[in-house]
Design brief:
The complex is a heterotrimer of chains A (about 575), B (about 425) and C (about 425). Chain A is an alpha+beta fold and about 575 residues long. Chain A is built from 19 helices and 23 strands. In chain A, the strands form 5 sheets. In chain A, strands 5, 6, 7, 14, 15, 16, 17, 18 and 19 form a 9-stranded mixed sheet that branches. Chain A has a 6-stranded mixed sheet with strand order 9-2-1-13-21-20, sandwiched between helices. In chain A, strands 3-8-4 form a 3-stranded antiparallel sheet. With about 425 residues, chain C is an alpha/beta fold. Chain C folds into 4 domains: about 80 residues, Fumarate Reductase Iron-sulfur Protein, Chain B, domain 2; about 45 residues, no CATH class; about 130 residues, Up-down Bundle (Glutathione S-transferase Yfyf (Class Pi), Chain A, domain 2); about 110 residues, Rossmann fold, CATH 3.40.50. The radius of gyration of chain C is 21 Å and the shape is globular. Classes of the chains: A alpha+beta (about 575), B alpha/beta (about 425), C alpha/beta (about 425).
Chain lengths: ~575, ~425, ~425
């Protein structure tokens, strides 16, 4: 063993990033590998609720207590990722009084500040609540951006010396004599930042200890190591509204059920969710009834949702776990608690621990516990500081109040930029260059896009999750192209087009689920703009078709312009030496 | 009734104006009712007749020859070559010298703002020097502040397509002092009025200033392409001045919205309507109708909360597709909102699209089904009304986006519907 | 019905003004859901006359759906560029997806003025005065000749520019020696009575104080078609107040209009305006911005004068045998007429009138847009916007201008020196014996 133990963390979700940061801060040498972008798995597919704990106050008070503690921590260390919207548990006339009372008492027992509001008071807070609601409990729920939170954790870990490898899929867990000694990954485009066209490579990474923070994928990693991890992935739909119908988290105050929460998230609201067990966390049906169910049921709380525009829907897979033999049938009954599975104790395989279950809100606490566990393995006594040290972007609160006019941006754009960037705003926005808006829906400027490219390479989806560009109501109709332009000339023509195609298809994946009314018209405009106006669908470069240029109109006065257009054109494929696109 | 015409056309895009002009040609008194600004402002201004067809690899060079390969029920199959040629003739007469391409049946190839090469039938004169089948050396110029377009990237992409000329690209700073988020309308306006701009401490007329910035990058180029924001009312003069200062041909690359070629075409078409004596009412939507049996008596126009009947003998529906709001949808289904004409569509919403963003989307074909007389048909294949015809985007059954036949279908159906409506008087 | 009393008077000191709660509850102020309609096509931006000439104005798409969508509840600041919107409302007419653009702009402007503007600034006081033109017109018209002479004085104009921020280049419109309401009263009210053809006339400020001949033409034309015309007590339509973000003032005036016209609607009267901004206001802005009893009903019964006749009378037949003095007109359609779909009606009708040549001078904005061109700092842009119209007017055959809007007519006269007529005046010449 070297002086500094090397720990390898698998999974770039909230837990993996949190663990990586904690380990790095406690002096470990750490490598994080993630098969996609950061947040690629469940973290990037959650509703963005920062739990007050209210949702668990009746059914699972231990979780509820953890939630309120971590809620307070995140408000401090991740202020630029958190919006303290407050939350309401709204009771409709048909909802049980007794449950309402239990909820209120449960909150108080768990130390969650809770206040009963009359219907009028609740509607004064949220005017679009149904007129016939009975009353509500106000709790300190919030909204959190999981993308920026993960990215900030990873950035902090990097500052503490960690190596972060995205687009590095684990293809094997290396086991020698009942001990895990490392893993083998396939780098999509070589190690380091993802850059298109860089050929894929494989790499064996040896480590003194491996932590699998792969959630719903833990079973698959376990299998590679030869151990059984019985995760029970459960899917849930989330439907994104175009605007914020509510500025407060609105929960339905009744025992567990589908479609019972609306979370204001950045410029949108997210409706959630369902809870259905699936076989494979990457291949499951995404169904119309789930989307309809969100809209129809939640419009009982907020009637205007019925006809409001949704811009996309997505599904997340909960990494539910229960110890072997528990045998719960209904996934909604499976505990939301997390489990640390030390494979040495459990399976006689040393050098690896998996962490499964748990909730986003308590990611830091989970990371702390697993880091404690790793410390124990190595007999290291180092204190956890992740609850006290702010994440990059949240170091200085004052900047949030000082953004006005400083960056030469219109006030709503400056405000949104600073809300996203936090204390990094100065460094990112003050480039001294003209700074046009690239994504108008989400008010993202060129400077912010360039900053994200600097961080993440030519992967525009990685740029997207850092900036929110292309996440607004046009779903990238106008800005996918502009974002690709920002890659050039740092990256070449072929890379810019591939990155565009990838982002465009990714945007379509979620937008498909919102195709009626305004969003169908929007999608048709997007399709027309890219197909009719730009002909992206029949682009000869991308399809590889050769065009016989002589077979087409050479103009009315072609002869006078160029001698013999037809003849001169037959050699085809002459490209200017001054360009670097190259022939294909 | 106070407001009465022979033919009432609803919709002010290419299909509606073509129908109105064709109907007026027959001697009928025509009124065109349009609600908001048409989708011409979002379109490139190119008139595509047919760019891709089932049996043809790559771009179609002769659209007329490719018609027979189109599926049954396609508007071109229903209406035939005569309608397409009729529509093109109405268009050519209306636009005069503002467009080129009428000298041949062969498609022209132009570069889109996305860098791809696209086949089209009629193209604004302002784009003509950009023909890809022309072998003159090309410089493509982008503006650094204009995020929609990157001249260097487009040039590289063209080179990658193996075009028969050398091509270079450059991104320039727009002369004059603009905010970073300036609308392109500012640039177009400055060029249009040729106002003095600050350029390197001097004050120069806008067109000259632009030329000065471009000149150092000209190299051997015989032609210079710029994003299509070169003026509005005086676009020809803007181009001529730029050409004079640069000593090279200048052309525009059609852009997405806001589209100046589209805006200019809108002006030209509305001038042609005036010229033809067509009456115009714009700003209020058609929302319903009054009928006697299977004949429409009047179309109801909502004039700010007041339902006003516009009566006519014959009616042409040219309200556009999903973007123009001639076709409307909700979670339950798809409909045509003015006359509630039948719009065929799958019951299951998840059958409206496919998983590939550029796949064969059923939604791209949403619209009313027409017969050979352009009459919209009900679910049983019977005309919905005896005196209603449909044209343009509201007509379904064809993915004109993938086919690059959007304007062509509008011209053919507009011509056929307008002529038939006028002749029925 | 001939009561010329002012229903409410304006207090010039801003501080003592009692604010009216414009938005009865939060719901009315939150226009974020309106952003649902926007699909970013930029049709509004290409229709905006201000964005084309004013670098600081980012265009209606940003001012409307984008800015609203980016708002969070606790966010206060509205970008100050909202004050550069001239409220021409052309964006409304452009949007293919019916985004409530002008409503968003009006609301954001109201919020900006009430939350962020310094109430002691020259800009605020000047805007307040412009918005409340009627108040000053009422005083001025008591001694019309003297007022016109004073306001026309070059020195007075220069002082106005310095102290009030009104452009010295502009000449104040002269006050009529007899207001429309005085004429109406002296005439003894309606000359025609009818049970089934009855209209209530909203003349607005300008027809009353400055161009009573337009009001008289309206009365005579309608009476010639057999309509009973009544002229209820009324204030300002509110148009200049919306444009300056003075929503409290506008609500006060809207209340007066609704109060005095609602009862008449119940009795079978339709409401007619001769000024297209007044009709615009009653039809669209009232119900969009205020909730009060009867306001929707008022909107649904309000028409512009010629719009009403076109719908209910056969105007083409009525002018078939008419003869008028030979004259060529250069017609400009006001933006607010365009918005109501009325931009073509004058040309369409009068081109069939013997002896008349009428040419539309194009679809550009005149640039004055009510009070916009009356602001010193906007004057230059106002003239830039108007340039296209001036040019077209000069190229047109006619040397008399025509338009429905009083401020467009000021601008047309200011830019070309032509006399400007209202279409009702020509219609009067054609159809009134």
């Amino acid at each position: 063993m070297t002086d500094t133990p090397h720990v390898l963390v698998i999974g770039g979700g909230s837990t993996g990033c949190g663990i990586t940061r904690d380990l790095a801060m406690r002096g470990f040498e750490v490598t994080l590998v993630e098969k996609g972008n950061l947040t690629h798995g469940t973290t990037g597919r959650m509703h963005g609720l920062l739990h007050s704990g209210g949702r668990y106050a009746v059914s699972d008070q231990a979780s509820a207590t953890e939630c309120i503690e971590e809620n307070r921590v995140l408000r401090d260390i991740a202020s630029h990722c958190v919006e303290m919207t407050g939350g309401l548990f709204v009771q409709r006339p048909e909802d049980d009084d007794e449950y309402f009372q239990k909820k209120l008492e449960g909150c108080r027992e768990c130390g969650i500040p809770a206040e009963v509001l009359s219907a009028e008071e609740a509607r004064e807070m949220e005017p679009y609540l149904a007129t016939d609601i009975k009353r509500a409990i106000k709790v300190p729920d919030g909204a959190v951006d999981p993308f920026r939170l993960c990215v900030a954790n990873a950035a902090s870990a990097q500052e503490h010396g960690a190596r972060i490898e995205t687009h590095a899929e684990v293809i094997d867990v290396l086991v020698e004599d009942d001990q895990v000694v490392g893993i083998e990954v396939k780098h999509d485009s070589g190690p380091g930042k993802r850059e298109h066209k860089t050929p894929g490579t494989t790499e064996k990474i040896y480590a003194d200890y491996v932590v699998s923070a792969t959630g719903a994928w833990a079973g698959q990693i376990g299998e590679m190591a030869g151990v059984d991890v019985e995760v029970r992935p459960s899917k849930g739909v989330m439907t994104i509204m175009n605007t914020r119908q509510v500025d407060t988290v609105v929960n339905r105050c009744k025992p567990k059920g589908d479609a019972d929460i609306v979370v204001p998230h950045e410029t949108t609201c997210i409706l959630g969710t369902t809870d259905i067990e699936v076989e494979d966390p990457e291949d499951y049906p995404e169904e119309q009834w789930e989307v309809d169910h969100m809209i129809d049921t939640l419009s009982e709380l907020v009637p205007m949702l019925k006809d409001a525009r949704t811009i996309r829907s997505f599904w997340g897979v909960r990494p539910l776990y229960e110890p072997p033999g528990t045998g719960t049938d209904d996934p909604t009954d499976i505990t939301r608690d997390f489990f640390l599975l030390d494979h040495e104790e459990r399976d006689g395989l040393s050098g690896m621990t998996s962490i499964v279950g748990g909730k986003f809100t308590t990611y830091r606490m989970m990371a702390e516990k697993i880091t404690d566990h790793v410390c124990e393995q190595f007999g290291i006594d180092a204190e956890c500081r992740t609850a006290d040290e702010p994440l990059p972007g949240s170091e200085d609160f004052s900047v949030l109040r000082d953004y006005m006019d400083e960056f030469g941006l219109r006030s709503p754009i400056g405000r949104r930029s600073v809300q996203r960037l936090g204390s990094r705003a100065d460094e990112v926005l003050k480039t001294g260059e003209p700074n046009p808006v690239v994504c108008e829906c989400e008010a993202v400027t060129r400077a912010e896009i360039q900053d994200a490219i600097e961080q993440s390479g030519s992967d525009l989806n990685a740029v997207r999750i850092r900036t929110r560009a292309s996440m607004g109501n046009c779903q990238g109709a106008f800005c996918c192209q502009r974002m690709a332009h920002e890659l050039y000339p740092k990256y070449d023509e072929e890379t810019a087009y591939s990155a565009f195609d990838e982002l465009f298809q990714e945007r379509w994946k979620g937008e498909r689920h919102a195709l009626w009314g305004q969003q169908l018209s929007q999608a048709m405009l997007k399709y027309s703009l890219h197909s009719t106006t730009m002909n992206a669908d029949h682009d000869a470069v991308r399809t590889g078709d050769a065009i016989d240029f002589t077979a087409f109109d050479g103009g009315t006065d072609a002869a006078s312009k160029s001698g013999a257009t037809g003849a001169a054109a037959t050699d085809g494929g002459v490209s200017s030496p001054g360009t670097n696109g190259g022939d294909r | 009734m106070a407001i009465h015409e022979d033919v009432l056309v609803i919709g002010g895009g290419i299909a509606g104006t073509t129908a109105a002009l064709a109907a007026a040609e027959t001697g009928a008194q025509v009124r065109l009712v349009t609600h908001k600004k048409s989708t011409l402002r979002q379109a490139s201004g190119l008139i595509d007749v047919l760019g891709y067809a089932p049996d043809v690899d790559g771009p179609v060079s002769d659209p007329f020859a490719a018609i027979e390969s189109l599926p049954e029920g396609h508007p071109y199959q229903l209406l035939g070559e005569t309608a397409i040629r009729g529509g093109l003739t109405v268009f050519d007469e209306a636009v005069g010298e503002a467009y080129e391409g009428s000298h041949t049946d062969t498609n022209a190839l132009l570069t889109t703002s996305g860098g791809a090469i696209k086949p089209t039938s009629r193209y604004p004169t302002s784009t003509a020097a950009g023909l890809v089948s022309d072998d003159r050396a090309m410089l493509i110029v982008g503006f650094r502040s204009l995020t929609d377009f990157d001249g260097e990237l487009v040039a590289d992409h063209l080179a990658a397509a193996g075009v028969p000329f050398s091509v270079d690209g450059v991104e320039i700073e727009v002369p004059g002092s603009y905010r970073a988020d300036s609308r392109v309308t500012r640039i177009a306006n400055a060029l249009d009025l040729n106002k003095d701009l600050d350029y390197e401490g001097r004050s120069l007329p806008a067109r000259e200033a632009f030329a000065e910035v471009i000149k150092p990058h000209l190299g051997d180029a015989d032609r210079v392409g710029l994003p299509a924001v070169l003026g509005d009312d005086h676009a020809d003069a803007v181009r001529a001045d730029l050409e004079r200062h640069l000593g090279a041909a200048v052309f525009e690359l059609p852009m997405g919205p806001p589209s100046y070629p589209g805006l200019r075409l809108e002006d030209i078409l509305f001038d042609a309507l005036d010229e033809a004596g067509v009456r115009l009412s714009d700003g209020n939507p058609a929302v319903g109708y009054e009928a006697d049996g299977d004949a429409i008596d009047a179309v109801i126009v909502d004039q700010m909360n007041k339902e006003v009947p516009y009566s006519a003998e014959q009616v042409v529906l040219a309200t556009g597709g999903l973007v123009g709001k001639g076709i409307d949808s909700d979670r339950e289904g798809v409909r045509e909102p003015v006359f509630d004409c039948h719009v065929p569509h799958p019951d299951d919403r998840y059958d409206w699209f496919v998983d590939d963003a550029f796949g064969e989307h059923p939604f791209a074909k949403f619209g009313v089904q027409i017969d050979e007389a352009c009459k919209p048909l009900d679910a049983d294949g019977v005309p919905e009304f005896s005196n209603l015809r449909a044209a343009g985007g509201v007509v379904g059954g064809v993915d004109r986006t993938a086919e690059k036949s959007k304007s062509g279908v509008s011209l053919a159906t507009g011509y056929a519907a307008g002529t038939a409506a006028g002749e029925a008087i | 019905m001939s009561d010329a009393e002012s229903p409410s008077d304006f207090d010039t000191t801003a501080q003592s003004f009692e604010p009216v709660q414009v938005f009865p509850n939060n719901e009315d102020m939150d226009l974020r859901p309106g952003a649902d309609n926007c699909y970013k096509c930029t049709a509004c931006d290409t229709s905006c006359p201000v964005a084309e000439v004013d670098e600081d104005f980012p265009g209606p798409k940003f001012q409307g759906p984008e800015q609203w969508r980016l708002k969070r509840k606790e966010d206060q600041a509205v970008d100050d560029s909202i004050m550069s919107c001239s409220n021409c409302m052309r964006c409304d007419n452009a949007c293919p997806s019916s985004v409530p653009l002008s409503q968003m702009h009006n609301t954001a402007r109201g919020e900006y003025v009430s939350e962020e503007m310094n109430k002691l600034s020259q800009e605020y006081i000047r805007n307040r005065i412009l918005a409340n033109y009627r108040f000053f017109a009422k005083i001025g018209s008591k001694v019309p000749r003297l007022s016109s002479a004073i306001m026309g004085n070059r020195l007075v104009r220069e002082i106005n520019e310095r102290i009030l921020g009104l452009p010295a280049e502009r000449e104040f419109p002269a006050f009529a020696t007899e207001t429309f309401r005085e004429w109406w009263s002296n005439r003894g009210g309606p000359k025609v009575r009818s049970e089934d053809k009855r209209v209530a006339y909203f003349h607005g400020c300008y027809s009353n104080f400055n161009t009573p001949e337009v009001g008289k033409a309206m009365v005579r034309v309608f009476e010639s078609f057999g309509y009973e015309v009544v002229v209820p007590k009324q204030g300002c339509s509110g148009t200049p107040m919306f444009a300056n973000g003075m929503l409290d003032d506008a609500k006060r005036e809207a209340g007066i209009t609704v109060e005095n016209f609602s009862g008449l609607i119940d009795e079978g009267y339709d409401v007619i305006a001769s000024c297209t901004s007044c009709s615009m206001s009653l039809k669209q802005e009232y119900p969009e911005l205020f909730s009060m009893d009867g306001i929707e009903d008022l909107s649904a019964h309000t028409y512009e004068a010629m719009e009403y006749l076109r719908i209910n009378e056969d105007l083409h037949s009525a002018i078939e045998d008419a003869s008028v003095e030979e004259q060529a007109y250069a017609y400009h359609a006001p933006c607010h007429a365009r918005n109501q779909g009325l931009d073509r009606q004058a040309v369409e009708l009068f081109r069939d009138l013997d002896g008349v040549i009428i040419e539309d001078v194009g679809d550009s904005c005149s640039g004055i847009s009510g009070t916009y061109g009356w602001k010193k700092e906007k004057y230059e842009n106002s003239m830039k916007i108007g340039e296209e119209m001036f040019e077209h007017m000069e190229h047109a055959t006619g040397d008399v201008g025509m338009t429905e809007c009083p401020t467009c007519s000021m601008q047309m006269e200011h830019g070309t020196g032509y006399d400007i007529k209202h279409p009702l005046q020509l219609l009067e010449e054609a159809v009134v014996e």
